[in-house]
Amino acid sequence: MIEPPYFAVIFSSHRTDADAAGYAATAVQMEALARRQPGFLGVESVRGADGFGITVSYWRDEASIRRWKMQVDHQLAQQQGRQVWYERYEVKVAKVARGYGFKKDAG
Fold this sequence. Notes:
This protein has 107 residues and is of the alpha+beta class. It has one domain (6-96): 2-Layer Sandwich (Alpha-Beta Plaits), CATH 3.30.70.100. The chain has helices at residues 23-35, 62-70, 72-85; strands at residues 6-15, 40-47, 52-59, 86-96. The protein has a four-stranded antiparallel beta sheet. β2 and β3 (52-59) form a beta hairpin. The longest helix has 14 residues, at 72-85. The model has no long low-confidence stretch (mean pLDDT 93).
């Protein structure tokens, strides 16, 4: 678990039917690129059969988020997303002040 405080970028989207055009490959590339960015802490992502998905990326601070938003390859992917892959999306940035979890023992 990441020790708070940190920031979460919550990207909720609804995909178009244009499943081709390199979406999967670009998603893999963007995650690999994000992992190399200063301040990146992790990512979780889910997508339903109806095309709705949520990706949450975690960052040490808001400056790291701004640098990621302005990263050239990420900007190109964003443009492609608006033109081809997404019907709509919404981005929320939140500061995580507290976190906790549960994990059942294997035994």
